[in-house]
Amino acid sequence: MKLKGKKEESPNNNESPKGKMTLLLAMVALISGFGSSFQYGYNVSVINSPAPYMQDFYNQTYFNRNGVPMDSSFLTFLWSLTVSMYPLGGFFGSLMVWPLVNNCGRKGTLLINNIFSIVAALLMGTSEIAKTFEVIIFSRVIMGIYAGLASNVVPMFLGEISPKNLRGATGVVPQFFITVGILIAQILGLNSILGNAKGWPVLLGLTGIPSLIQLLILPFFPESPRYLLIQKGNEEQARKALKKLRGWDDVDDEIAEMRQEDRSEKEEGQFSVLSLFTFRGLRWQLISIIVMMMGQQLSGINAVFYYADRIFEFAGVDSNNVQYVTVSIGAVNVVMTLLAVFIVESLGRRILLLAGFGLCCVSCAVLTLALNLQSTVSWMSYLSIVCVILYIIGHAIGASPIPFVMITEMFLQSSRPAAFMVGGSVHWLCNFTVGLVFLYLEAGLGSYCFLLFCGVCLATMIYIFFVVPETKNKTFMEINRIMAKRNKVEIQEDKEELKDFQTVPAGQEEKKEVSSSEL
Question: Average pLDDT, stretch 6-34?
């Protein structure tokens, strides 16, 4: 610690105790991830296995109403709606992030969001008894809204309550629970469990259970200290919450850093999406999250899962056992995402992003070759399997989890909700677009569509290499100063900023402001 007005010799020294993973912080991460992110993943794949039985229900219901069977083209249209309404709802949910988190807080938004999940679960679970398939389609929109909010608010919440040395690990936790949700849906969707004519309503309705658990437990956990201090102006509550999360009473360093961030943003106020797009000081941050989110969703992850069944069948896997192989792929996804939780703080965000997109790029290129030669070269079918597994590994360690971590870290408190709203909207719009056009791409290009995904991965990797900085173990203000240089915005020292504090935290410099003449 140094006396006020003194500048630290090294911004990276560690005189204050390093943040540790307390039991309370771990519980908040687990309850937030399981109660929210789990359902995002669960509903991504929950309708895949019972699809034939659900389509039979659609057809039988239509026949009971009209006395004639449903036209096959109309059934295809209804099923396309059932699938595509989920990402479309996710886009609508992303649009709600900014107003909800600013007015209700991070924890408050997660609690409110559970209403969408519970209502949708009740509707889907009783749809067969009510003899209505329309309610399933409507419920998929509601679940999409829930997932759109959860996918943005959970990483924001966890990023704000974590110490800087654990922010990456807790930021990957939501993605880990997404992969767990996908895997559980695949397991429960097996024909021998709930993926059959009698079990599919129960399978759909189970999604409400995590929300009930979160609704009962989450109220006992603290709100984001940064939200309480910077946006609500309540230092006493923020200090109290921070003491609980850190497990010790001396939180002056972090309070001082929050105050520094608060004062640096007083002139701008809360950013809306429009002001975010027009503010020069956040130009490269905004471009970066858009590029990373587009790369995440347009890199071919849905195509790889779509092709996986055919790839394994061509390699000799019996068609009746393909669903078990799909479950094994889901398990690989879970294990590698869990690995990312443990290595993100040691290797850093940038390395995982480059390695992840690089591995996906190479896998797509080799997979294109293998798929086109597997009918003439016998061992190419096994190379295809290797490519699928390597692609899943690459996406799990970098492309899937890290972009959401970067949104939290590259934006300060006033602009973070709007940034998540933009990033989430891009995420869900790209997801929706891929679902809409992939079948046409596959019909026109066949396996060569993977060359397009290879190009997307390569372009994203090049952008990250030249533009995106390493944010590991840095405060939000330190990251902001790095990006200010990218934006060619002048940063000035304000020697009076910390005058209300008797001490300043180790490794912190005096306040720097954006010069208004440079905006």
Answer: 69
How many Å from the N-terminal Cα to the C-terminal Cα in the chain? 34
Q: Is residue 209 part of a domain?
A: yes
Read off the tokens for 50.
């019972």
Same domain, 467 and 493: no
**Domains held by the chain: number:** 3
The CATH number of the domain where 425 resides is what?
Answer: 1.20.1250.20
What is the three-state SS of 230-269? HHCCCHHHHHHHHHHHHCCCCCHHHHHHHHHHHHHCCCCC
Q: Would you say residue 224 lies in a domain?
A: yes
pLDDT tens, residue by residue, 161-201: 999 899 999 999 999 999 999 999 989 998 889 989 899 99
Note down the domain range covering 498: 488-518
6 neighbors 148 (Cβ within 8 angstroms): no
Nearest residue to 172 via CA among 29, 45, 301, 292:
29
Half-sphere exposure of 206 (CA within 13 A, CB side): 17
483 and 509 part of one domain = no
Q: Is residue 191 included in any domain, yes or no?
A: yes
Candidates 134, 127, 135, 306; CA nearest to 200 is: 127
Identify the pLDDT of residue 491.
53
Residue 36 and residue 140: Cα distance in Å, rounded?
A: 16
* Nearest Cα to Cα of residue 371 among 361, 363, 380: 380
